[in-house]
Amino acid sequence: MPKSPDYFIGKTIIITGAASGIGKATALIFAREGANVACADINGDGARATASQISGSGGKALALAVDVTSRAQVNEMVRAAIEAFGGVQFQFNSAGAALARSKFLDIDDTLFERTFALNVKGTLHCMQAVLPHMLGNGRGVIVNMASMAHRRGGPGSSAHYAAAKGAVVSMTLGVAREFAHAGIRCLSISPGPIRTPFQAAAQTSPELLQRFLDDVPMKRFGEPEEIGELVLFMCSDACDFMTADTVYVNGGGGWR
Questions:
Q1: Run of H or E residues at 97
Q2: DSSP 8-state symbol, 194
């Protein structure tokens, strides 16, 4: 939570992947705190549903159908958010996926390139699009979605995804250190298994899901809202000295 109770009122966040899971949960949490929310997702109907839920509760939201692998679409996303709300103070780059599970020797060029396009280039596009605006304002916070996979390496199922999220962590560190003097903070979150549509989209087998769960001392998956509340804290005035870090949220697991 912020130190100032009304800290987020009237401020704006862009959230990618806002149609479902962590992105949607975070959008609703920021709206609860009075922020304007630009809800972006490749699933335009899902983005509109999230924005409609916010508007129906008295909040302010904008729905944007955006493919983050397209630099032009991302640039338009940021332009539209600034035009709608007058400025952007926060960005949460939640869009990402493993796309498919694969043993290392079976990872082909198409899977590898698509995984990096979505997770790495998508994050790059979003940060490059919003940073000039934030630099002009002399302040801004960017939070990127990483993963515990970058510490584990994804053996047997997702080395391509682990490598991509490792790149996100490194890029977050670079941006944080390059622009810290200009009032920009940049952080990433590395969750363990979270109860979202992600696992179904990646075709995660029940056996692999059980293996993930067995590795969590709390014996449960995390909830999307638990990540969303962390994003809120990271963007708040309660942690102005925090930048360049990735925060692990995993119920004590994910280290094997």
A1: none
A2: B
CA distances for 246 relative to 100, 215, 234, angstroms: 24, 20, 11
Residue 92 CA, chain-centre distance (Å), reads 5
DSSP-assigned letters across all residues of 203-230: T--HHHHHHHHHT-TT-S-B-HHHHHHH
Active site residues: 161
CA-to-CA distance for 174 and 141, rounded, in angstroms?
Answer: 14
Decide: pTM greater than 0.90.
yes
pLDDT at 198 over 60: no
pLDDT at 110 over 70: yes
Tens digit of each residue's pLDDT (9 = 90 or more) over 47-100: 999 999 999 999 999 999 999 999 999 999 999 999 999 999 999 999 999 999
Q: Which of 112, 59, 115, 68 is nearest to 91 (CA)?
A: 68
Q: How distant, in Å, are the alpha carbons of 107, 115, 149, 170, 204 from that of 157?
A: 10, 13, 10, 22, 9
The pLDDT assigned to 207 comes to 85
Query: What is the per-residue pLDDT for 92?
Result: 99
**Structural contact between residues 113 and 64, judged by C-beta atoms closer than 8 angstroms:** no
Q: Contact, 12 vs 60, CB < 8 A?
A: no
The type of residue at 59 is G
